[in-house]
Amino acid sequence: MMLNKILIKTTPILLMLSFTGFFTGKTPHYVSGLSPFFYGLAQVETIVFGEAKTSLWAKEQGHVDQVRNRIEKVISSYHTGLDEKNDVRITEWILAESKKYGYDPLFLTALIITESSFYNWAKSNRGARGLMQLKPATAVALASETSLKWKGTRTLFDPEKNIALGAYYLNKMEARFGNLKLALEAYNHGPSRLRKYLRKGYQPKRYSRKVLKNYRKLRFQPI
Asked: I need a surface site. Which of 22, 35, 75, 128 has the fewest CB within 10 A?
């Protein structure tokens, strides 16, 4: 009876540690004062985020091809609103921008899913537009910094340019805030608002965890 109780209490912990080790090749270490289960969750989140920013995906062409196929399959399950010519090129733009900034292509794919569900003509109630949901005022500045030709707000409905600006913006936020979790929150809330939150001792996590959830689904499902 006692053994059964112990197994019931420890099974979630063992599953979490196994999950971490199997998918990442790393075993989380227990920290005194923190529940092993929740520490395991935190470790998985940290490790997976760490793998989102890596050049591993570019090392073997065969693996890149597998990732390309997976992204194409993912996109095919969404309604992009684009013609066939541009629809099939989205994957190449994701791969190109991922390579430029050292991101896992599946991570940028997860970010686009979170932002627009791959609908190119998406527009938020705050005026953000396109696949990566950029606001025109922000995008104008980003276009100037990257020497990208700006043709007004309609530029954000050009999927190639939208992905280029979105990836650049995320990388810029990462450089400013020092880690990918905060970069995602800055991407969502805006850097000024995030700094205000941080000065008050509050760190938003909802958005970054939403992106991470989508990334995990893409990263860990069989190819």
From this structure: 22
